[in-house]
Amino acid sequence: MSDKLVFGNISSKEAINLEETYGAHNYHPLPVVLAKGEGAKVWDPEGNEYYDFLSAYSAVNQGHCHPKIINALTDQANILTLTSRAFFNNKLGEY
After folding, report:
1. How far is CA 81 from CA 22, 71, 84, 88, in A?
2. This prediction's pTM
3. Is 70 left (phi over 0), alpha (psi -120 to 50) or beta?
4. What's the confidence (pLDDT) of residue 4?
5. What's the CA gap between 26 and 20, in Å, rounded?
6. pLDDT tens digits, residue range 24-72?
């Protein structure tokens, strides 16, 4: 693994050390730091390429950074970012 950073401003080793020191220890993650994603591929800070077979436990099974989804997210974030389930909202019922 190279020490040269391609994505982000900290190395994989630094990111893992920070999470082990300050993060909640409710998972035992794989020793891979993800810094960028596109479609089914993800990259670590050093530029190593991987296939994302976990897809955030199916939350991103459509792939990473699809332009239509980015546009929809941006449009919605300009209106209302998030509501908790303590309230109703004008979109959820449609789905």
Report:
1. 27, 14, 10, 14
2. 0.70
3. alpha
4. 80
5. 11
6. 888 888 999 999 999 999 999 999 999 999 888 878 888 999 999 999 9
The closest alpha carbon to 30, from 54, 60, 58, belongs to 54
Q: What is the pLDDT of residues 79-95, one digit of tens each?
A: 988 888 888 888 777 76
| Domains assigned to the chain | 12-94 (3.90.1150.10)
- For residue 24, the number of C-alpha atoms closer than 13 Å in the C-beta half-sphere is 2
Q: How far apart are CA 52 and CA 36, in angstroms?
A: 11
Assigned token pair, 23: 């993060």
Return d(Cα 93, Cα 90) in angstroms, integer.
7
Tell me the pLDDT tens digit for each residue of 6-30: 888 899 999 999 999 998 888 888 9
Residue whose entry in the numeric block shows the structure tokens 């993650």:
29
